[in-house]
User: Fold this.
Amino acid sequence: MLQLEDLTISVNGKILVKDFNLHIEKGEVHVLFGPNGVGKSTIVYAILGFPGYKVVKGRIIFKGKDITEIPTYERVKMGIGVAFQHPPKIKGLRVADIVNICANRIGEEVDEDILKLVDELKIPKEFLQRDFNVGFSGGEIKKNEILQLMIQNPDFIILDEPDSGVDMENIGLIGEIVSRLLERNLMPSLRRKAGLLITHSGHILRFVKADRAHVLLNGRKACSGNPEEILRNIMERGYEECIKRCQIK
Amino acid sequence: MHKKMPNKVEKEDDNTLEGGKEKSISSLQDIPEQFKDKLTCIGFSFNEDERSGSYIQFNHSPIFSRARISGVEVLSIIEALERYEWLKDYWWKILPSNLDEYTRLANEKLTHGYFIRVKPKTRIILPIQACLFISKPKISQHVHNIIIAEEESELHIITGCATAPHVTSALHVGVSEFYIKRGAKVTFTMIHSWGKNTEVKPRTGVLVKDDSSFISNYVCLGPVGNLQMYPTAYCVGENAKVTFQSIILASENSVMDVGSRVYLKARNSRANIISRAVAKDYGEIYAKGHLIGENADVKGYLECRGIMLSDTAKIYAIPELEAKAKDVNLAHEAAVGKIAEEEILYLTARGLTPDEATTVLIGGFLRLNLEDLPQKLRFEVSRMMKTIIEKAF
Assistant:
């Protein structure tokens, strides 16, 4: 569903990600590990086509189409959805307003269907009337992102650190919902969705099963393999040790 | 910056005064069809059942004034002055008639205006509407309005002032004096929509007594020639509370000089001044605010936020705090800039184009806080704001 081919990304003239390859098939979930600041989010922004994240080499192929040059909103309309690590606080726009944008609906109030999703996320309904992320706790911000994704229900889901700053109970809840969005409950041959899960702690993997993992170090893919095995290595040795052992310079 | 009134208007003064004679109507439904769209845009309802009372003036003629509920009066000011001898005690008592050339014009060449009074202990939840409309070009309208909320009363006013779509040049001078007596609550929501060369000079004074509150919401999002106003409230009673909110958009060649001022004269009086300004094209905005703390335990907050949408526009934010007593608490926040890039990006990641995202964000920025309005009016105004903002972009 998504292919990144030899992707080299520069920001303000500085190369942050180099020769990155990734191939995610329909029905698969991949994990991208890596310590803070190695360029994981840079890859997310490049997949989305945010201005400033320049693809200087390589291509992004989504559903068989080269999307490297098309604007963000068209990529989103093709079926890419993201839960951001640090979504903005927006004074003046309520959660309900953005929920309605995701639902492609005009109006002040939200649909009954959406209230059910809000319930499922165990967030109070009043939440919808609050200014977007203004004064929200870390967990509330993440749940808000998941709410937008549930409404968009995209074919390809990117989750950028959905577990950072969230307590275990809520990671469980988020994980359960994400698993369902990714159709992990279906037989692999029946799954129509795919996803990329970015995490440096790996907590979310207790609740979302992934097919393959990659480690990003200094803007390059250091290794790929079985998610559980790679996570175990990271947990036991830490990223420091990974970097030392890694042959990438 | 204070432009002179165009010479043309001065020269044609006599003509334009006479040119204002309009026929009265017996039902709001009889308002000429060609003006109804514009009037709807400024909050006017043609269904009398939706209002406690209505006043509408075309040019220089009050064409309709009626109160539907006992305890409230809605009259043309000239009729009220004839009927009530005591009204002279409220005439030019907050504002001096020689404040400037515009107040002098209203004093010397009065062309009506409205009188609204709610009796003591009468709480009117259904709003009263007032409309000052200029339907012909080059009209010079000088009105004087008196609003009296007697003790422990409640009153919600929605008022619209506009020029007809084909009218580009005109002068509107609107003097308003508000008397908010002990324990009364008044909300005043005013929507302006002018022709692009119109000169608009509201002059407003508000007297706020003990335990009473006055909430003003002002909206002007269409182009105007020159709009200049500095409504001033005087909290003369203990625990008096005043809020001024203004939402303005200066587009094309508009010059908008809009401020609000509150004198916190009595103990424990409170004021909030919130200003949201957007400037685009060649628009110029002077967003002002002035809080004067003159007594113990007064509290005032002033917020001035502006968004610039072009390099040829200008926003000049001038927040002023003036403390004249030891135990005052005055604060202000001011910020002018562009729309946050990350907010636009975020909305594009939710499927909007950058232009759509900008419109949505400006809509949010310009959203009025309407919590002080009765629910039905709140919904009505918030729906109307949406339409006005969509039209403005």
